[in-house]
Design brief:
It is a single chain. This protein has a 5-stranded mixed β-sheet, with helices on one face. It has helices at residues 2-22, 25-34, 37-44, 96-108, 112-117, 152-165, 191-208, and strands at residues 121-125, 129-135, 172-177, 216-221, 240-246. It is an alpha+beta fold. The protein folds into 2 domains: 2-68, no CATH class; 96-246, 60s Ribosomal Protein L30, Chain: A (2-Layer Sandwich), CATH 3.30.1330. The protein is 36% helix and 13% strand. Helix 7 (191-208) links the parallel strand 3 (172-177) and strand 4 (216-221). Helix 4 (96-108) crosses helix 6 and helix 6 (152-165) packs across helix 7 (191-208). The protein contains 7 helices and 5 strands. InterPro entries: Bact_OuterMem_StrucFunc, MotB-like_N_dom, OmpA-like, OmpA-like_sf. Residues 130-247 form the OmpA-like domain. Pfam families: MotB_plug, OmpA. It is found in: Cell membrane. It comes from Novosphingobium lindaniclasticum LE124.
Length: 247
């Protein structure tokens, strides 16, 4: 009885060797599937079946996707790094500057006084992030005339801005602008130093309002070379402070 079992096993072994040598890889996968009923049943109900949407010959065969992953059933899924997905997942990351912009709009609408001051604020989307412009006019001024001293209204406005941009953590750039009015004779100073000094005064006020000082990457004074109203260099609206919150 033991000898008969041995001979049967040897025949099966040689038959296996012959099959391995006389068949293609595709045929061998088909034979393996035949002797694995559970696998065949799973295959027939999956995308890897011959009649499925992928038309695969075997559940374990490498896929026919444009970028072959060579999956064997042991690969793990890749989870997007943010909850909204990236460009390949059809979503988009919510930018820091966009969140700050929404927060500032909500803050400026929270009281009648801030709603009046909001008329001096313009928010512009740029390639670097969102730029917040605080613009002077005939009825409002960020600084006392010819100085770097903030007016009480400007301090209140900067406090509201600090509360909006404080939690975002993005890098900040401040740029000071003046109109083209010249200094009076006998007064030491010029619009370059004035615009830079006003940008620095703005930075210091934001720090007093709890914005982290390490976030400030650049402070600039550009005098009157980037006029908001080029047709009238003396227009008070050319005097402004720009705060750019980068993404």
């Amino acid at each position: 009885m033991a000898y008969a079992d041995f001979v049967t096993a040897m025949m099966a072994f040689f038959l296996l060797l012959w099959i391995l040598g006389a068949t293609t890889e595709k045929q061998r996968r088909g034979i393996a599937d035949y002797f694995t009923p559970t696998l065949v049943k799973t295959k027939q109900g999956s995308a890897g079946s011959g009649q499925g949407v992928l038309g695969g010959a075997s559940l374990t065969q490498v896929d026919n996707y444009p970028f072959k992953a060579g999956q064997t059933g042991t690969k793990t899924l890749t989870i997007p790094r943010d909850a909204t997905g990236g460009p390949k997942e059809g979503g988009s990351r919510i930018k820091r500057s966009s969140r700050a912009k929404e927060a500032l709009e909500k803050k400026l609408a929270s009281s009648e006084r801030l709603r009046r001051l909001a008329r001096q604020v313009r928010m512009v989307d740029t390639t670097q992030g969102v730029r917040i412009d605080m613009v002077d006019d005939a009825d409002f001024s960020m600084f006392r005339l010819g100085t770097t001293i903030l007016t009480p209204q400007a301090v209140e406005l900067l406090s509201a801005i600090a509360q909006a941009i404080g939690p975002t953590g993005g890098p900040l750039t401040i740029r000071g602008h003046t109109d083209a009015l010249p200094y009076k004779q006998g007064i030491a100073g010029n619009n370059w130093s004035l615009s830079a000094g006003r940008a620095e005064a703005t930075r210091q006020q934001l720090i007093r309002d709890a914005v982290d000082g390490a976030r400030f990457k650049r402070i600039e004074g550009v005098a009157d070379i980037e006029l908001l109203i080029p047709a009238d260099p003396h227009d008070p609206r050319n005097r402004r402070i720009s705060i750019t919150l980068a993404d």
